[in-house]
Structures
1.
Amino acid sequence: MTTNKSKEDSEKDLKSLRKIRNTTSRATVKKLENIIYKKFKVLDHGFVRLIDYMGDDSSIVQAARVSYGKGTKKINEDKSLINYLLSHRHSTPFEMNEIKLHVKLPIFVARQWIRHRTANVNEYSARYSILEKEFYIPELKHMQTQSSVNNQGRGEKIDKENALEKRHIIKKHSESSFEKYSYLLNENLVGETLDLNNIGLARELARMTLPLNAYTQWYWKIDLHNLMHFLSLRFDQHAQYEIRVYADVILEIMKKWVPFTYEAFLKFRLDGFSLSSVGLEYLKSILKNKKFDTKRISKRELNEINSKFDL
Ligand SMILES: Cc1cc2nc3c(=O)[nH]c(=O)nc-3n(C[C@H](O)[C@H](O)[C@H](O)COP(=O)(O)OP(=O)(O)OC[C@H]3O[C@@H](n4cnc5c(N)ncnc54)[C@H](O)[C@@H]3O)c2cc1C
């Protein structure tokens, strides 16, 4: 069961929470301690908030070295071990570290996010609580046409007049959905009856009128290995802008949390590039100035290689 507590958390409560100091012999990361409970704003009403974490870069190294019976060595050796583990897909040492986030996000983003099954999730219950009248409205610059080259993406920016008109429709539709929600519930956020002559419907039924751009919230806990998998898919240019902005904030938190792993992740995953065997042959043929039948390689991979290597 989820309660209304998160909504009652005022900034004052958060400030006093952040003042609490506990002593521990466990690994802590100063840069994360400095941002714990702080809300990082995402989109118009969303946020990411660090709730808890376990481990640091040295915990990964320690876990990896169990088999040798040795602990942390010099910084350079730790760094190169992390590089080695990441580049050779030795994933379990990264699974030893965990992070817990509080995220507020539009429902259509949550639907993409929840596909990552390797996290633990507890979502705000709209059966138990009433959702605030908050919905995502894209900024004008993000009002774009359907892409003509990628069925799953956006194309050109729409001219201002058209963008304003279309955005107005989204806003009106969202407001009208929330009005219906409120009418069906017949109660306000604190549970007071709105109209004594109206019979309120159960929250679990009234919510059916809510639009996909309404905001939901959850606690999301994941280990570092699976977090990197999530980030490699959702920080990618193929991911939808509205989830990418969340991945962007989480990547910054990761940078503070495990800087060596972050560096290796950028080097071997985000900024790295993998090729199919045919892609490799294509690249070899270019280096050796030999002919290559481009019908053998998929158009998508060909375009990706050409753009990566400025060919
Ligand atoms: C750009 C983009 C477009 C997408 N488009 C679509 C779409 O059109 N339709 C759609 O339905 N989805 C779509 N998805 C979702 C996608 O197919 C994955 O479901 C999602 O990215 C989660 O990935 P995952 O399963 O690897 O992650 P996780 O669920 O976090 O799993 C991580 C890894 O754990 C392993 N694993 C987890 N669970 C199992 C299991 N039960 N069995 C075996 N191995 C498991 C796998 O190795 C997996 O890669 C899209 C995703 C992206 C990034």
2.
Amino acid sequence: MLPHINTRSACSSVSRVAFASLVAAVCVHVGCSVSPEIDARRCVVWGPGLSPDAVLPVRYFYIQSVDSEGHNLSASPAADSFRVKIWSLEKEFVRVHVPAPLDRGDGSLLVRYRLYGSSSKGLKIEVLYQDKPVADSPYTLQGPVYHESCVCPERDPSVWRSALQCPEDEPQIQQDFLSFPSIDLQRLLREVPERFSRRGGLLHYSLVNNQLHRRSLGKYTDFKMFSDEMLLSLARKVKLPDVEFYINVGDWPMENRKAGDEPGPLPIISWCGSTDTRDIILPTYDITHSSLEAMRGVTSDLLSVQGHTGPVWSDKTEKAFFRGRDSREERLRLVAMSKENPELLDAGITAYFFFRDREKDLGKAPLVGFFDFFKYKYQVNVDGTVAAYRFPYLMLGNSLVFKQDSPYYEHFYTHLKAGVHYIPVKRDLSDLLQKIRWAQKNDTQAEAIAKSGQSLVRDLLQPHRLYCYYYSVLQTYAARQSTRPAVHPDMELVPQPSDPSALCDCQRSSEELDPLQKNEL
Ligand SMILES: *[C@@H]1O[C@H](CO)[C@@H](O)[C@H](O)[C@H]1NC(C)=O
Ligand SMILES: *[C@@H]1O[C@H](CO)[C@@H](O)[C@H](O)[C@H]1NC(C)=O
């Protein structure tokens, strides 16, 4: 495969290595195996972490390593040969946590950093490959560079969206709102509690003047911490439209009326959609929360998983893998299939709750760390109570995902094509074994599908894109409100957390007023 081609071309170019002092070669294996020469200046560095205005809990950017002939490397350079230093330009010390770059296993690296305070002057980012500056390093991020917890919304949403390079439109959002050309808030106020509060997990929010207010309409609303934290984080960054809406924090989507029904469907916002319901969906609390808490407590998130995708394809075990709870009958079926076909499938239930009586036949498998899943070439994604929220992470690994057909979906599925980005399997799993055999026989195609899925999802599931998505849902919803949003007497203010150590000195509202001063400088 490609990595071998690169290795060979580097071996045959020993003379170039000898005369070009700028070019470095590192022996990674015994024998004649020299890693390809990286030309530091030709490497490509990009991503939102190079923009001061892309305020995120964890900022990040990418490095693609490029050889002296301008070819992208497709195998890992020794990750520790790239070093990144980030410091603030003022005298006062601002702590910046910069872990070692994550090796994405394909010649590219992911650099993450978390600020512990704001920097009014700005940041300097230095990227070095064996002490030589990479691409246009050093990079200067002109201050102010705000900390995640600064309440400093950009007044002009188009400026904010362009700093994050948000996509023009999201097909899922357009589709979700087809059922709701106009939203009458008075009607929702009368009908939503009556129809849905018994379901337990409903919250009623009003965002007015960028302040968040809410009331709970059910007994099981502890997960409001997840919707609160994201809505507050968004409101700190950008001026949101005034908007009043209902979020369902329970597992199942709720609204089963169809667009043409009389009375028509109500716009309920949920984390998971299904083909039988009309709920408007948001990125799940799982990927959202892990993006907010990455690098402080959470270990598996959309970024960290990219650096832990296991061995290279050819060194992975040629079997399908599954570990999980017993939340759906087909998961038990999968384990039974695995016992009969251990050469194709390694599946186990790690905890019993719904089907306790089956434990004595099927046994309980020990827990396996998520990153270890990627020691296997194939991953099986079987629904849990609704869509399995591990699917985004599985897609980010470099394994081939076998996805059970499902009526449930998350916000990004519409971009994925069966057979192109993953292998679809029937809901009853009856064609799974045959499809695993196909993959074993057609290794090149299997690897190509795994790669194309990974590459698409790496793009779609960047944490900053979650912010774009949340914003677009609120904005699309707001534009359809036929009556004015209001803060109701039984709502409580959800305050922004205070964080004095973030050194926030928001310049934004005054910035608009002093373009004259700037011109004089
Ligand atoms: C090399 O990688 C960069 C960064 O992903 C990409 O923009 C560029 O198109 C790639 N070049 C080639 C020739 O594939
Ligand atoms: C998969 O492999 C089989 C057996 O080697 C071969 O007959 C078939 O054409 C391959 N399928 C594809 C899509 O290449």
